[in-house]
Amino acid sequence: MPELAEVHFFQRRWAPARGKRVRSVHGHWDKRIFRGADTTGLRRNLPGKTLTGAATSGKQMLFCFGPSCWLGVHLGMTGKLDLASDKPTGKHDHLVIESSVGFLVFTDPRLFGRVRTHFEPSPPDWWTQRPPDILGRAFTTNYLERAFHRRSKSPLKALLLDQSLFPGIGNWMADEICWRAGFWPGLPAGNLNSGQIQLLRRVTRQVTRDAIRVIGTDWSRPPDHWLFNHRWEAGHRCPRCQHPLNRNSIAGRTTAWCSVCQSLF
DNA sequence: CTATTTGTTTATCC
DNA sequence: AGGATAAACAAATA
């Protein structure tokens, strides 16, 4: 489920615990989500710490618990964060952090998500060395042009799904961006000229802002004039021209597009 | 029982 | 060497 907007939404679920102290920590420490994490350190360091900050970048989340205790969360395909008033006991509630406002819980049935730990004063490298955010200053047309040139044979969709280039974009946002911009997702990246990359950048930023506004704040249902509500329906039609949508695998992922609105160049 | 999944990493092939 | 593609991971759902 989680792309950048959903990550935004889930990060806010833990927000009421900001400024609160951790009372206890429980987890399914042998589960895959803790691969590479120092779970012993987590159990030793987290209790007594205060949640002092939280941030998202793309699909990554970083929580700061007082000095020298950082918790990274990636939701994978089915991860969720929640704040529960009673102690969560679900089969897939793999990390539970008790605070005075409730239990912070990370649930993930498919275990594609990931929890990372870092016990130093400064934030971890994987956070400070992340690529430019889509809504940030460094996400320029020129920056994209260099990447599109380097990967000119790759389908556009493959670039949109690349987290080092479009951090936070996932399958539905990639389809939404291509549809709004009028590009076939299978189009080789090298076929886009400078003006088209500029258009793609503008649409990407707009879809990102729209998704954060609609889904990221309260998980509202996206409006019907987006592709989003139509792309998985049987007999699905393009919300702009009513032509039946195409569905096929592009860059290894199921992709929906409108053959009328999205030209092949 | 089979096919599908809003993600990422690794292996393999070109 | 670098990039594209498929498989693997794991579990629920249709």
The outline comes out as elongated
Order of helices and strands: HEHEEEEEEEHHHHHEE
Main β-sheet description: 4 strands, antiparallel
Ranges where pLDDT stays below 50 over 5 or more residues in a row are none
Rg, Å, rounded:
20 Å
**Span between termini:** 32 Å
How big a fraction of the residues is strand? 15-25%
Q: Strand sequence of the main sheet, in spatial order?
A: 1-6-7-5
Q: If you average the pLDDT, what whole number results?
A: 92
What share of the residues lie within helices?
25-40%
- Helix/strand/pairing category: alpha+beta
- Secondary structure: number of strands: 10
The DSSP helix count reads 7
Structure description:
The protein is α+β, with helices and mostly antiparallel strands. It contains seven helices and ten strands. The strands form three sheets. A four-stranded antiparallel β-sheet has the order 1-6-7-5. A four-stranded antiparallel β-sheet has the order 2-3-4-8, with helices on one face. The longest helix is centred in the last third of the chain and has 25 residues, at 194-218. The chain is elongated, with a radius of gyration of 20 Å. The mean pLDDT is 92. The chain binds a DNA duplex (14 and 14 nucleotides) through residues 1-3, 6, 32, 59, 74-78, 92, 109-114, 150-151, 153-155, 158, 161, 163, 170-174, 251-254.
